[in-house]
Model the fold of this input.
Amino acid sequence: MKRPVVKALFGSLALVHVLFFQFGIANQYDPHVYPSIGPFIEGWYARLTDTSTPQSFGVLFGRVLPKPTAERKKSIPLTYVAIVCSAGDQAPFVVAEAFPDPDHISVTVDGGMPVTENPDNRSPANFRWAADPYGSFNVTAESTVFNFTIGDKSLAGSFGAPVPWGPVGQGPEGWLSNLPFIPLHWFVYSLSTFGDYTWESRGDGLTIHGNARMHQEKNWGDGFPPSWIWMQGVDSSGSTVFAGTFGVLKFLGYLSITAHLFGYRDYGADVELDFRPDNSISRMTADGCNGVARIEVLSFWYKVIVEARAPPATLQKCLRGPTEYGFQKVLVESFMATVDIAVYKRGYFSYHLMDMKSFEGAAIEFGGEELCEHNPCTAEL
Done:
């Protein structure tokens, strides 16, 4: 009499298995189709960490379809391109930013075709995002090539194939990315793509050329959340990397829920760990004024303790992030953070240390309500 129940249970599990592997492998780095009514944001970010010096660089670009409301100030830009340089030694960010005319932005896929459907579950990334006259960002399965010039600053790079977060395009959210009510998505395309870059500042007569490891990611959804901390780091060889975001998501416009996504890879020690709300819990204490954060992530088998600190002097430059109203100054970021990570595995009676790494020149970002209350960025919150 119980066989039909067992058969039904087996069938349900098989269906879950098929759905997981059908939808969990999607590569979401390609452009999405914008809805007819906002809010909807889509933005790409790449951070370059020089392999032999403390210098770091960044490039970010995107567009916002704003929330249809009279509350939005027309002065808030809806498009954005920025290139960033951090020279190390507690030097502040150098940021060159532009707000392209939407009519001068071209987003194409598969060698020049218009974006008519969302990224699928089979195809590798293949798109070009260009903003005239500032430059372009080109991605194929084998390479990422970009070149942006804003004012007297320029950043160009040529990088190889991605080092993906997971198999066949799986990102930090795993199967959770398919839930229809997630207000903001975060996809990491590559943890440490290797390549070369050139930064030029013609006003200073400065040219920097070197090799770097590039972290590549993308956000899309309603807009950045009310509160968050983001961090990322890689060693010079690319053998140990991490990336994570911790904060509060707002569902249905009023329901706030704490969430976390964190990944740690030590390829030499064969350690590859992913933490999400469906498999772990997290606790965080942070102080944006002093540039410190402590995070503990706990799953059934593992415990990870992350301790991050950045010189407060490197967290003074207001940066823009995509909100439901446009690109607003809602965050600060440092490329001079020190991040210590300890990984413990559950034993019979307690956890035991299985891996420990310290990352210099890591990135940490404080956004929204995690900003220091004395920071001028808070004026736009």
Observations:
- Confidence is low (pLDDT under 50) at residues 1-26.
